[in-house]
């Protein structure tokens, strides 16, 4: 006879609740992306997303503060996590700190997208279709600008700099955004053959080396594909 203690039972229940919450979050995201791709971002309401996911609008807002936040990577919590990483990450230079923080973000984003859809290409296809909507592009641009500003402010704090007078923190933040965007597109477009965090790491390595044309970043996906074909 196996006896389950109240602590064990409570832990199991908590774990089950968390898994159910994660499943609901994934379902809301996947349904929303499908609707955005089919109808256009501006033509889909929160109520319609909730109905398609078989939950109430109130439940939707328990998971996301807005329709825009449904998009992967758009959660306000993710922005706060990145800022905290930059402020607490160990590293001797701002670029090293940013590289480590962005690798962590890449690892989490890849895991999130793997839960959302096992095929990165399918996710990318839905995102591309959804982004055809001008209102969605505007919302995404505003979100990315907010992330860059938050990253720049965190870097300025580490550097004891004034973000409004020293352009270096904002430049690094813009570089980080470009790295993540380009690596995410290559990762999804190649079917995730190379881990996203590896691509981000190589991209920052290329930047640190002055962006040489012979950077390993340009070959890593091709080399991985050749190995799979052998």
Description of the structure:
By secondary structure, this protein is mainly α. The protein has 2 domains: about 70 residues, Orthogonal Bundle (Arc Repressor Mutant, subunit A), CATH 1.10.10; about 160 residues, Tetracycline Repressor, domain 2 (Orthogonal Bundle). It is built from 10 helices and no strands. The longest helix is centred in the first third of the chain and has 34 residues. The radius of gyration is 20 Å and the shape is globular. The N terminus is likely disordered.
Fill in the keyword field for this structure.
mainly alpha; about 75% helix; 2 domains; about 230 residues; globular; 10 helices; Tetracycline Repressor, domain 2; Arc Repressor Mutant, subunit A
Short note summarizing the structure:
With 230 residues, the chain is mainly α. Helices cover 73% and strands 0% of the residues.
